Amino acid sequence: MEVLLHEASTVGVGGESVVNHQSAEKPVILVQDDTTTDITFTRLPPQQPIDILFQDIVFTASLGFRKGKKEILHRINGRFPPGQLIAIMGPSGAGKSTLLDILSGYRIRGVTGKVYANGVIRNLKAFRKSSCYIQQDDRLQPLLTTQENMQIAADLKLPSEVPKSEKNEIIDEILKMLGLFETKNTKGSGLSGGQRKRLSIALELINNPTVMFLDEPTTGLDSSSCSQCIKLLKDLAQQGRTIICTIHQPSASLFQLFDQVYVLSSGNCLYQGTTQRLVQFLADVNSPCPMYHNPADYVIELACGEFGSDIINVMVDKTSNGKSLAYFNKDILPKLDNYTAGNSVSSNESTTDEGGLQATSSLNQLKVLLKRGYIKTKRDQTLTYMRFVVNAFTGVMLGTLYWQAGWDGTKVLDNYNLLFSILMHHMMSTMMLTILTCMLSKRNVDINKRTFQQMVLPKNVLHCRYAVIIYTMTGQPLEMNRFCMFFVISQLVVFVAQSFGLVIGAVCDVVNGTFLGPTLSVPMMMFAGFGVSLRDLPSYLYWGSYISYLRYGLEGIVGAIYGLDRPTIFCPDDAYCHYKYPIKFLEDIAIKGDQFGNDVIALVITLFFFRMLAYALLRYKLMAVR
Ligand SMILES: Nc1ncnc2c1ncn2[C@@H]1O[C@H](COP(=O)(O)OP(=O)(O)OP(=O)(O)O)[C@@H](O)[C@H]1O
């Protein structure tokens, strides 16, 4: 691949290209880079190229209750033509990510101004379908291999009518093009930073977007991976895609790979035009780029205000805050007028498109996500084995402590304590694990429909072995129906605790979540009818027993062991057995032994309620961010 630099540029120490500002007009080929393999991507963008134009964009952020508002972007304008690799540059806090969020349609609240696609106000839904947004934090599944990551993306993004062989062909082509074919069987966690970044791009290429937004795609990469990544983007742009990325301070050689640059400073546009004409522009505003200085560095220094605010104002005036196309490539200017309306992302079409962003049915997505969840659970050594070992260990500990208490008439109260301890173990271990993992997944996942689905699927499955260990060691009645009832209630408590953890994880950060989870569980325990029986609960607190899922868990599990007209419990000859008759025990603890069906219904309703609440809270959060 060839790298274009200014005529009088030289290659500096360490191979870094530096640019002599004296001749800004004629780019020549300076460096022949033969490290990159020839890339051929036969899949062209599926629709006509998209020319993005934005006018008078203002973004006002709300600083919180009674804290007022702050204008972040100040009536900026710009044009991002197709077939171009465009860099949005600027100092930290200039508004690059905010602009990217707005243009990609990810942020809509607090935004005014117009965004056009091919000359017509864009249709957001259709635009989102034709574009992709690759965030800084990649969303790769570390436990899945490159091939599996791609396969799942293909199953979710491509219509289900596409045959598997065709999907595999597409995957292979993308992987080959991105130099990832060799890592097909490598797990995400084993990929290098550059490979991870390329895989993030590969995942988005599955449905072949026409517009690609990338937030700092080079962050965390070494210089060779950086240039590989940008060259790849440039190739994709040359096929007619519009590729826009934010970038901090690119080296001179990297900078020259971009076709166009858009410079921001404190929410204003300082420059938009070709990378080559930036030097000319700086000369035109009487702030010429010093000799042997990287123009990208110099313009950032100016944007940071290192040379005063006057020059910033001059630059903003000169570009008319992004309106001026004077520094655009003269060859593409006439072409811009040809990008006419009538595209699927225009406002006139697709307004009735209710198909959402996904190409496949919800049922198919559910199937794919379940499959992914299964593979992840199987491979998650820490969680799966730790959970298994901890469960088995707790089972053996409780089994030893309450050895054969289930059939012994002298140990009925002990057995009752055991049943409550089992519920506590299910509740606490599942809830805390969910709070923590929910935080982790929220951190690196943009909350979209798939995330919701992923988060609302019940995933924690009680190990049957745990139930068998504890049930047999503690001598509970060896009757299939009682064991099944015990197992069903235990599993439902696990699911409800997981959902409760999701609700907390959806609203709190990790510190507040780990505090709030156990704290809110205390009233659940209080109202379960264990310490204070339901009969003794003050009438003004009785409502609490209806909302405590542990109450239904306890009632169901006690009913499984002591209900169903269980006959007299064995009592050693020389012992006094106060609770020889299960019915008397149930009366004393004020628990009915025949409520299993109602308990299951109550737990299922609670499960459904918490799942919906978690879904609504996440959705609300997403809307608030947008
Ligand atoms: N929702 C918000 N509430 C308050 N301030 C915000 C909000 N969104 C953005 N800002 C502020 O707007 C400014 C621009 O933020 P943005 O993330 O777009 O900057 P950036 O140029 O991408 O910075 P960086 O390169 O450091 O990522 C920052 O000062 C940021 O604090």
UniProtKB/TrEMBL annotation:
Q: How does it sit in the membrane?
A: Multi-pass membrane protein
What subcellular compartments does it reside in? Membrane
PROSITE patterns this protein is in? Answer: ABC_TRANSPORTER_1 (PS00211), ABC_TRANSPORTER_2 (PS50893)
In this chain the ABC transporter domain maps to 52-291
What UniProt keywords apply to this chain's record, in alphabetical order? ATP-binding, Membrane, Nucleotide-binding, Transmembrane, Transmembrane helix, Transport
Q: Name one Pfam family in it.
A: ABC_tran
Any idea what this protein is called? ATP-binding cassette sub-family G member 1
GO terms under cellular component: plasma membrane
One molecular function GO term is: ABC-type transporter activity
Locate the transmembrane regions by residue number: 385-405, 417-440, 483-507, 513-534, 546-564, 600-618
Task: Give the primary localization class.
Answer: membrane
Q: Which family does it belong to?
A: Belongs to the ABC transporter superfamily. ABCG family. Eye pigment precursor importer (TC 3.A.1.204) subfamily.
User: Which InterPro entries does this UniProt record tie to the protein?
Assistant: AAA+_ATPase (IPR003593), ABC2_TM (IPR013525), ABC_transporter-like_ATP-bd (IPR003439), ABC_transporter-like_CS (IPR017871), ABCG_dom (IPR043926), ABCG_transporters (IPR050352), P-loop_NTPase (IPR027417)
Query: Where does this protein come from, organism-wise?
Result: Asbolus verrucosus
